[in-house]
Amino acid sequence: MRHPIRAAAAVLLCCASPAFAGTVQVQDPVPFSESAFIADNIKDECRMGAQLATALGNNAETFGNTIAFAAEPTTDGRVLKLEIVEAQSARTGFNHYKSATVRGVLMDDGQKVATVTARRISRGGAGGMFKGSCDVLERVVYAIGSDLAEWLANPTDDAKLGDF
User: Fold this and answer.
1) Whether 80 contacts 26, CB under 8 Å
2) For residue 90, with 0-12 CB atoms within 10 Å meaning exposed, 13-18 middle and 19 or more buried, which class applies?
3) CA dihedral 88, 94, 95, 101 (to 10 degrees)
4) pLDDT tens digits for the chain (164 residues)?
5) What is the rounded distance in angstroms from the CA atom of residue 104 to the CA atom of residue 142?
6) CA terminus-to-terminus distance, the chain
7) Which N-terminal residues, if any, form the signal peptide (predicted)?
8) CATH number of the domain where residue 66 is located
9) Strand ranges, E, within the chain
10) 143 lies in a domain?
């Protein structure tokens, strides 16, 4: 073989997988924290919990994981317990100010592996003046779901993701 190092590198790249790849159970929809001060209209009108779960599920495969959704995850296997701990929705004229924070604990067979806090902020983006508050908040949690999917590939304890 003329290029053994290149061949070995190619094999490693093809067979390498994220450090913690596998199936992870997640509650769908992700609940609001009972201790959070979040306006009732956000809880009642916006689909933040469902959108967060969808985003996590859609992006997890990119990083070698599969998300198994459950109304109440079991304690067996890998479980990511998430809760929405903050959601802000303000608007001045044509400008939005939206933010959300999600906290999570990754468990493996009932043992804590790592904790994570993810936060994102949005001012509405292009055409923001034509978007509703829930649309912008759902975009915010979609970004958080993407951040969490990447973190699940190599979870570190006390991680801070997004806009801190």
Assistant:
1) yes
2) exposed
3) 30
4) 454 544 443 433 334 344 456 899 999 999 999 999 999 999 999 999 999 999 999 999 999 999 999 998 888 999 999 999 999 998 777 778 999 999 999 999 999 999 999 999 998 766 656 567 898 999 999 999 999 999 999 999 999 999 98
5) 16
6) 50
7) 1-21
8) 3.40.50.10610
9) 22-27, 65-70, 78-92, 95-108, 111-122, 159-162
10) yes
Number of domains in the chain: 1
DSSP string, 30-76: PPBPTT----HHHHHH--HHHHHHHHHHHHHGGGTEEEEEESS--SS
On whether the CB atoms of residues 51 and 142 are closer than 8 A, the answer is: yes
**Secondary structure of residue 110 in the 3-state scheme:** coil
Structure tokens at 33: 């924290």
Length of the chain: 164
Contact 123, 99 (CB under 8 A): no
